Amino acid sequence: MNLSQFNSVLRQVFLLPVVSLLVVAGALYMQIRGANLTVNLIQDSDARISQATLVSKLVVDQESGLRGYQTTGDARFLQPFNDAESHVQEEINNLDNMAGADTDQKQDIIDLRAEHQTWRDAFALPVIGQVQEGGKANDVDLNLHGKVLMDEVRHDLDDIIHKAEDNRARRITRWHSQVRTMLLVLLFLALGMGLLIGLFTRSRLHTVSVAYRMSLEILGRRAEELFQSEQQLRTTLDSIGDGVITCDAAGRIQMMNPVARELTGWGLSEARGQPLEKVFHIVNEVTRETVETPVAKVKRLNRIVGMANHPILIRKDGTELNVADSGAPIRDQKGETRGIVLVFRDITIERKTQDALMANEKLAVAGRLAATIAHEIHNPLDSVSNLLYLMRNGASKEESIQFMDMAEQELARVTQISRAMLGLYRESKAPVVVDLKEMLHEILLLLERRLIDLGVTVSTDMPKLVSVAAFPAELRQVFTNLITNAAEAAGPGGVVKVSITADSVSLDTTGKKKLTGATVTISDNGPGIPDDVQANLFQPFFTTKGERGTGLGLWISRGIVNKHGGTISLESATDETEHGTVVSVFLATNPTITAAAI
Fold this sequence. Notes:
Blueprint: H1 3-72, H2 79-97, H3 103-132, H4 140-239, E1 243-248, E2 253-256, H5 258-264, H6 268-271, H7 276-279, E3 281-283, H8 294-301, E4 305-306, E5 312-314, E6 320-331, E7 337-346, H9 348-392, H10 397-423, E8 432-435, H11 436-446, H12 448-454, E9 457-461, E10 467-470, H13 472-490, E11 495-503, E12 506-507, E13 513-514, E14 517-524, H14 531-534, H15 553-563, E15 567-574, E16 579-588
Parallel strand pairs: 9-11
Antiparallel strand pairs: 1-2, 1-7, 3-5, 4-6, 5-6, 6-7, 8-10, 11-14, 12-13, 14-16, 15-16
Helix pairs in contact: 1-2, 1-3, 1-4, 2-3, 3-4, 9-10, 10-11, 11-13, 13-15
């Protein structure tokens, strides 16, 4: 029996009692509904009897009041007659308007209304008028006539009450019959449904029992297959080139593959049951502070995580390795975390290679700037030599002072150029406050000859003071590369614009809070970059400059910007009417500097 069949059996076992209960409930509802209708009819009969009794009482009050007034002539005896007079017709109308009356009962009420009106007009009112005029109302024929009229009224009321009582008795008998029928129906339905459910459930349970025995046999075979699969998985883990550590939900080590044991310096027997932080001890490469392990981060975030800045792993013997790591939760069928797996690898050689590539790119930048800087330094020094020659050969005192001022200005320019050049390579050990406007002016000064040779015009739009915390030499390398690329793309007669925009605290398009900082924008009006080329611009060793390029500039620039917690983006258009490229670099005012630049 597969899962679908088992679920089908469960549905049948569940649905049959539900259907049975619905049938019983439907039958019970019909019986109760019929009984309730009968009870409503009984209540109608009770109401008709009560209303007829009320009319009878009013008629008696009228007759009693009239007899007392007829006998004594005292108007006070006439008060019950007057009180009943104002209500009797209204109550007869209420009796007529009651539901449930048949044609015979309607006719009785019509006769009652007519006979009561006849008694009132033909007997009661004449008697009252005769007494009020001072006469006597003792005439036997008149009183006998009044008695006959009143007997007819009473007879009609008795008929109405008697018929209502007969209807009530029949309805009560019917209600008792309905209750007995309902009990019998419920009894037979309960017995029938119970027998049906019992037989059906027995049949289904037998089917499940057979399937259970077959499942036990299948589970036995699968247990053996699982054991073989576990051995295969263990062999696979022992063979891969990355370190793998598995922990329980509390973060205690359960398994380490050989690569993990080699990288950490811990044996499996001594590491099993130990907290991961003790065996996999990682620190920040710059601050040397203990870093949150991927396992702790997985437990906190309950999802797959990776380390953005590659930490340093301190092995058991105290030696250090640069590692890249990630962690993922191991979940059960309910989605609850039952363990955590950590995967890491040694990237020490990779980091050294990246550092070598960065150094190579710096040397390439220096080579490209060497001729320009030599020319920029030669011209001021040549001017100083000429001025000194003039001062030695007969210059007046005033002219000598003027020549000295001019020489001082030229030497200041040489000093500024050399300081900017040294700043490109002199790196601080910690982030410092960098004035972006001053830095960009220094870079433009270094590139001035190169920009003139390319025939490019540069415009700037920079506020007076916009500063960020950063490694200045690395930012100089980024902006030197970006400005040079923009100038070469613009070509002769082109325009390059360098601008700085201060960014305050705000929300981005996703609703997340943006950091305070500045955006440096470098744009050109060159032909633009095709879409297929844009997709590869930030890849290492990809270049559009042929032998003149290394293909590392933008890749390293992005790594440096990411290291500073910033972002770099590029937009380009290749239309005939609108073309050019815009590169935007966002730098936070107080970023979290990471160790890895790439």
